[in-house]
Amino acid sequence: MDSRYLAGAIAGSLVAGSGITAMMIAGERKSGKPSELIDLQRNSARKLRLQAPDATRLPTDTEQVVAQGGHLLLSGIAGTAYAAATSKATNPLVGGVVFGLAFYALAHWLVGPLLGVKAPEWTEDRRTIALHAANHVGFGLVTAFAAATSARL
To answer: Structural domain of residue 31, as residue ranges?
Structure first.
């Protein structure tokens, strides 16, 4: 695997993950409700029989750092997976869309529901499904184009 391609994929995934993190935090501030990521963290804690704050309470700074830090770690791991599953010859438009949709399906349709920490995606309304899919496609595209651009340097 080309080290520049890998570095670009990781950097792109971290940039995209940071953008999604910023959107979630801004949504919390605007709505006064915890983000889905905070809900996921709290549900995971409860599954592990750990104490978790009330579902309606906004997260503390510490809780936010843990949730968003974990989200960025997962983003970086996803960037590594993208680089491992593709090559410099991959069309970044196609690779990014396919990767983003695959990541979305894995996280929202399979792993989250199977672990019991997230409601099955098929129970969500169309708007939520479209938003989740679009966010992941955007994530995939930023990751793919960053990898492709880095490989050309």
So the answer is: 3-152
